[in-house]
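Practice problem: tRNA N6-adenosine threonylcarbamoyltransferase
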Amino acid sequence: MKVLGIETSCDETGVAVYDTGRAGAGALRAHALYSQIALHAEYGGVVPELASRDHVRKLLPLIRQTLAEAGLAVDELDGVAYTAGPGLVGALLVGAGVARSLAWALDLPAVAVHHMEGHLLAPLMEDDPPEPPFVALLVSGGHTQLVAVEAIGQYRLLGETLDDAAGEAFDKTAKLMGLPYPGGPQLAKLAEQGRPGAYRFSRPMTDRPGLDFSFSGLKTQVLLAWRDSDQGADTRADIARGFEDAVVETLAIKCERALDAAGCDVLVVAGGVGANRRLRARLQQMAEKRGGRVCFPRPELCTDNGAMIAFAGALRLQAGQHETAEVKVAPRWDMAALPPVAAARES
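Answer key — structure tokens:
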């Protein structure tokens, strides 16, 4: 089954073709991504209306490009998958409208994909993928969640952020220190030059039981440290390192607790912050210490992309799940409400 995947939940236009007839990482026939960073940079954040309009401009050319790279004609597709939520409603509607139109015109099944399920399943596209049950850390600009995965489509929330997501905290901390948009990757790069231990910030909510996160207080600590410093280049790097160390250590502590709570030793990490090199190294260290395993998608599939949507959609289409002809999106969508793939197969 050759499935076209379309991702337009926020400010990146992603398109991919996933072929279930191929094995391992080779099943991803082609994928392309257009980022709107330059468009939104002057505003210091995503402007929803501009994001929607840019998806309108870029989506069809990107579909043509991806199909050409995959060596496929549009009538060789077997299904269409698209992000239906969560996300910006206007941006979601662009992708959903194009996907449903293609499916109707080609008489193909189409399936709505949950954006975070796409992230969660992205590591399963790699060679030697993990098998459920496992624990997933979904860590991005909009979400920080720990999820127990009993089977594909069967998810139980273990803990989540009570305020800022980890990626959001990275971006906001970078902004208060004057780093350019998007600040998170800039801060992580700057942290590589910082001295470990020069600034030590708290590891939020690790001094009490539970698996929830909170990063707003950490952000305030950085603000106070920055305000009271000389604000020189070396100090900026040291503060960035202290902040990153605090986030990484907090995530690692909570992940280990989640593995213990779930009685599992396999951790899957996905989302934009999952590309952070220090986080990857720390979680790898933790997994090796306990004789377990940690799995990541390749770095280019950590951020929003069409490949994860094509893959997640292919799994559900193979199980017999598809949508009616309506164009529907869900800007807010609880992943626990998704049907298990086995149940979709039986329906």
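Discussion: The mean pLDDT is 95. Students who identified this feature from the tokens alone can consider the problem solved.
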